[in-house]
Write a structure and sequence with these properties.
9% helix; mainly beta; two-stranded antiparallel ribbon; 35% strand
Length: 68
C-alpha cells in the first residue's frame, strides 16, 4: 500500500491518494480516519456525484435513516 497525503496552502481540503495491490475478489476494503470534526455535515463522493450527511447521530431517527 502506498498513500500520498496532500495539504495545500490556503485550502480546507486534505487529499488522499491511495494505491493498493489488491488480489481479493468479492471483498471490500475500507479505510477509516478517526478525527474530531467541528461541523454539522460532511460531503462524501459517490459513483456519480456527492451526498451530504450529518456528522453526528443524536436520535433514533438519525440512526435508522443512516442505514439507507
Amino acid at each position: 500500500m502506498v498513500q500520498h497525503i496532500s495539504l495545500h496552502f490556503d485550502s480546507q481540503v486534505i487529499e488522499f491518494e491511495t494505491e493498493i495491490e489488491w488480489h481479493e475478489t468479492h471483498k471490500l476494503l475500507k479505510c477509516q480516519f478517526p478525527v474530531l470534526v467541528n461541523a454539522d455535515h460532511a460531503t462524501f463522493e459517490t459513483a456519480y456525484g456527492a451526498v451530504q450527511r450529518p456528522t453526528h447521530r443524536n436520535t433514533s431517527w438519525d440512526q435508522v435513516h443512516s442505514k439507507e
